Amino acid sequence: MRSASFGIGDVVKHKYFPFRGIIFDVDPEFANTDEWYEAIPEDIRPAKEQPYYHLLADNGQEAYVAYVSQQNLLTDDEGGEPMHPAFAELFERGHDGRYHLKGAQAH
């Protein structure tokens, strides 16, 4: 098992699909349903034995929650806050310039 390359509050983008988001939770390895996993075309299906990230994501047209493998994420250097409507409810920018979960939501 690999260690997580990204953390909660990191803004990332998908390697292949046009969306970006902010990480709000991390699973050390795949923790979704088999049905969800099998729906991914086999030729691009990522390994289960790697961290998976829960994102507040947007593609410029709609906002949603995404579940993405580590191998399919890159750091988003675009800048700017994520456009997901739940972003402001869950995150705030710290003195260090990074996004952090607001105190009530931290666990």
Keywords:
two-stranded antiparallel ribbon; 107 residues; Hemimethylated_DNA-bd_sf; 7 strands; 2 helices; Clp_protease_adapter_ClpF; globular; DNA binding; Hemimethylated_DNA-bd_dom
Task: Summarize the topology.
Layout: E1 11-14, E2 20-27, H1 34-38, E3 52-58, E4 63-69, E5 73-75, H2 87-90, E6 91-93, E7 99-101
Antiparallel strand pairs: 1-2, 1-5, 2-3, 3-4, 6-7
Count of the separate structural domains = 1
Mean pLDDT: 91
Total strands: 7
Proportion of β residues? 25-35%
What does the model show?
With 107 residues, this protein is mainly β. It has one domain (11-101). It has two helices and seven strands; from the N terminus they run ββαβββαββ. It has helices at residues 34-38, 87-90, and strands spanning 11-14, 20-27, 52-58, 63-69, 73-75, 91-93, 99-101. The strands form two sheets. Strands 4-3-2-1-5 form a five-stranded antiparallel beta sheet, with no helix packed on it. It has a two-stranded antiparallel sheet with strand order 6-7. Strand 1 (11-14) and strand 2 (20-27) form a beta hairpin. The longest helix is centred in the middle third of the chain and has 5 residues, at 34-38. The chain is globular. The model has no long low-confidence stretch (mean pLDDT 91).
